[in-house]
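Folding Query — how this chain folds
Tokens — whole-number codes for backbone shape
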Amino acid sequence: QLVESGGGLVQPGGSLRLSCAASGDTLANYAIGWFRRAPGKEREGMSYINSSGDITNYADSVKGRFTISRDSAKNTVYLQMSSLQPEDTAVYYCAAAPASWGTLEKVAYAYWGQGTQVTVSP
């Protein structure tokens, strides 16, 4: 089971850190992706980290602003988001793929959290 946390309301230019915690299994066995679904849009991949934590990738829209990382001791993956803008408003999901590699394609991910709302507004 994956559980996201850390969402909320933030002003433009602000920062948030999302967490994705797992119970019942170790995240070290999985590549982890972060996705978001903005109102009226499809769910899209933002970032992923491979199972060993040494390969990451980002969508162009968040490159340089978002950072993904994983803490094996805490069995948690983080998404640090900075310089947030209103267009970043969305429900953010983490997902796990039973593979060592990662991808921004949602079809590769077998397990999903329930999502956490991020709202960027003055």
Q: What stands out?
A: The mean pLDDT is 95.
